[in-house]
Design a protein that fits this description.
The chain is an all-alpha fold. The chain is 69% helix and 0% strand.
Amino acid sequence: MKIAEVSKRYGISADTLRYYERIGILRDVPRNPSGLRDYSEKNCNAVEFVKCMRGAGMSIESLKLYMDLFYEGDHTKGQRKKLLEAQRDTIRARISELEEAFTRLSYRIDHYEETSSAERELMA
């Protein structure tokens, strides 16, 4: 699959895919005889994983470390699991913060007419 097709399929720009390859997050992307990238299903699975982890808020640095460990082999499974657990904990904390913000926002909306005009302006 050409880079433009992968870009469209996963909603990641071709420049970002090249960047991921350049810094080692994506590896072993084969090239056709003309030198153009020709992503395999294995490469596409890696792209999908990377997109998921970035969507989950994983930093480039952590993602690079994870992928470096992945490419080293199965003996790094424990380290990789710890990275994923840390990201899960980060997401869990963020969800908690968002739930608190949602509760406060909902309260403000539900009681909006009860507040003074000065407070409404401050809280807008």
